[in-house]
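WARN retry 2 of 3 for item q-0093 after timeout on previous attempt; input resubmitted unchanged.
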Amino acid sequence: MSETPALAPLVQAAYQAADRAITRRLRARGFEVTRAHSAVLANIDIEGGTRATVLAERAGVTKQAIGQVIDDLQRRGFVTRTEDPDDRRARLIKLRASGRRVIASARDVIQAIEARVLEDVGPEDVAAAQRALASLAKHAGQE
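OK item q-0093 returned
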């Protein structure tokens, strides 16, 4: 009887593989984005925008690192910085039309990957994986 592999390393390997595939497929669709760009774009609130400090927290990086990625995204025309109506000293990072297209395209790519997984293992195994991952997230968050 073989040992069941540890869940956390499998989650990390799956995340990294999916992240690389998403970036590769976005590039194939004409979007010049990096994995760092994707991590930031995925964390911007679609409607209202998001402060850089919140983006740094969500992405798990420093404010300085997030600032560099935001600068690059702004140069590429994916985001804009606007005044936060709740605090004039703060800036909101908002998606521009091209940034919204990247997000929409990324969703399409993710759906295609998920459809192939569903084909591979079936709905029962996907449901079991969802429950296992939800439990992992729950218990990992209890410190």
